[in-house]
Design brief:
The chain has helices at residues 7-32, 47-54, 70-76, 80-87, 121-135, 154-165, 200-204, 217-232, 274-283, 285-295, 301-324; strands spanning 62-66, 111-115, 141-146, 169-175, 209-213, 238-243. It is of the alpha/beta class. It has one domain (7-256, 312-323): Thiamin diphosphate (ThDP)-binding fold, Pyr/PP domains (Rossmann fold, 3-Layer(aba) Sandwich), CATH 3.40.50. A six-stranded parallel beta sheet has the order 2-1-3-4-6-5, with helices on both faces. The protein is globular.
């Protein structure tokens, strides 16, 4: 279903989902061409979680994310050209090329840390929530992490403290832990967590927790809106597990693009390889959202295609900007760090 928002807001959510998708696909193309090396992770398949969820926040809220951070930064409003330059290690990047894919941050947007350490951000987010409560500044913290983070000891330790002190923090777990072709796969039993459903873990610390379909943008927006409201009124931490289905292009260590995204795929996936066709048909959140917009008479197919064309043009310009940006000078190597 669609979020309960004005039409212009619904279309803006669509635009941001397109930005994430075409940004990530351009990144795969650049890597395949040898423009940059190093590992990276894609946010493809989780756009209907991150985009509507972050739309529920205030501009001054704090955010923490993981190595799968590109989508979160873009959903929050980071410039694609600056983020892409950062991933390529260029001086015009968000962090002057020193953060790379895993550690890109945007403090002006509230993103204080992206961590390649699994669960490393969970205690940090609890810290900023503690500071906000002490300062009584009304800010909340949102911690975005994957299902694998709950296997680490840092998670229950942070949950315990957040619950004891009723800290203003939203723990948003994006569970993409299962490969598969359809939406039902996401609800399968965990193979690595004795506590399952995953919401059992925060509930043990008396943190309200719920499990939702992360492909349903309207459900995500409604759930996160309610959670944020509860946190702001002083109810303490909230936990949401948004279930998605792992993008078929992530089946190997190096991401691929089974089929370049195009608005037309929302109605015809015959051009998609057989082994990925069902995912694009039923589990691709962007294509699901496009169909919902048209079915609800919020946009026509042509209008959505026009939005996508503009996004593709913007991403092409971002690629040109990033590729032409110079590398940092060697003498700058030790500047901008702290320990």
């Amino acid at each position: 279903m669609l979020p309960k928002l004005p039409r212009e807001n619904l279309l803006e959510l669509c635009r941001r989902m397109f930005v994430i998708r075409h940004f990530e696909e351009s990144l795969v193309a650049l890597h395949d061409k040898g423009v940059f090396g190093g590992h990276y992770h894609l946010y493809v398949g989780q756009e209907a979680t991150g985009v509507p969820a972050l739309a529920c926040l205030r501009a001054d809220d704090y955010l923490f994310t993981t190595h799968r951070n590109h989508g979160h930064l873009l959903a929050r409003g980071a410039e694609p050209k600056r983020l892409l330059a950062e991933i390529l290690g260029r001086v015009d990047g968000l962090n002057k090329g020193k953060g790379g894919s895993f550690h890109s941050v945007a403090p002006s947007l509230g993103f204080l840390h992206s961590s390649g350490v699994v669960a490393g951000i969970i205690p940090l987010s609890t810290g900023t929530a503690y500071a906000a409560k002490a300062q009584k500044n009304g800010r909340i913290t949102v911690c975005l992490f994957g299902d694998g983070s709950l296997e680490e000891g840092a998670a229950p330790e942070a949950f315990n403290l957040a619950s004891l002190l009723k800290l203003p923090v939203l723990f948003l777990c994006e569970n993409n832990g299962k490969y598969g072709s359809g939406r039902a796969v996401a609800a399968a039993q965990s193979s690595s967590m004795a506590a399952y459903p995953l919401t059992d873990l925060p509930k043990a610390y008396k943190i309200p927790a719920q499990q939702i379909d992360g492909i349903d943008a309207g459900l995500v927006h409604g759930t996160i809106s309610e959670a944020v409201e509860k946190i702001r009124r002083g109810d303490g931490p909230q936990f949401v597990e948004a279930q998605t289905v792992r993008y078929p292009g992530s089946a190997t260590n190096w991401p691929t693009v089974p089929a370049p995204t195009d608005t037309a795929l929302a109605w015809d996936v015959s051009s998609v390889p057989d082994n990925a066709r069902e995912w694009y048909h039923s589990a691709d959140p962007l294509l699901v959202y496009i169909r919902e917009l048209v079915q609800a008479n919020q946009a026509t197919r042509d209008a959505i295609a026009a939005i996508e064309r503009l996004v593709k043009s913007d991403i092409a310009a971002a690629v040109e900007f990033a590729v032409n940006s110079p590398y940092p000078k060697p003498e700058e190597a030790e500047k901008g760090y702290f320990a």
